[in-house]
Design a protein that fits this description.
Layout: H1 7-16, H2 18-40, H3 47-60, H4 70-77, H5 93-114, H6 117-137, H7 143-153, H8 159-180
Helix pairs in contact: 1-2, 1-6, 2-3, 2-5, 2-6, 2-8, 3-5, 4-5, 5-6, 6-7, 7-8
Amino acid sequence: METLVEGAVTKALRDGGDEAIRLYAAACAERMAPLFVGLRADAPGREADLDFYAESVRDLWHADRPLANAAEGVRQLERFPELQPNEEGITDVADTYAFFAALCLRYALLAHGSGNADDAVSCGHAALTAMGMLDQNVAGAGFLAEEQRLQCLSLRGDASGLWDASVTAGQERFRAVLGRLPR
């Protein structure tokens, strides 16, 4: 599979062990979380989905141990409308970024539960794809380069600095996507 994740990051994930994989996946999911939560906050009947999403991202930061309920979390997430097949495809801006955020969380949960580096790479790939699309649609944006930088940073093992950087990046992404929504 061709992936946007840098070869050095992929190698570090494969060589780094379960905790490195879990921290990387948690950071990717954290950066994408504002897109899902913010873009779905006003959707009627989605309160439980929003709570599940936010709780899942929070739980991913416990990188010292695998999530006991990761497989059940994946099954629950796969029932989200964003991950359901749609014959018409996704054309709406909000739907596009909510899809990538849900996909990123799906792979983060898989990686966290299994310690599988390929799942972590897929998690990073979803984030990079979304940021590449955002760069194409926001003049002068550098979201893809920032995501690549943060993915490299996540392999250094400093969860506190990484969490802060991920939260800030997620907020910036959300503001940029809001700017693309029809008024």
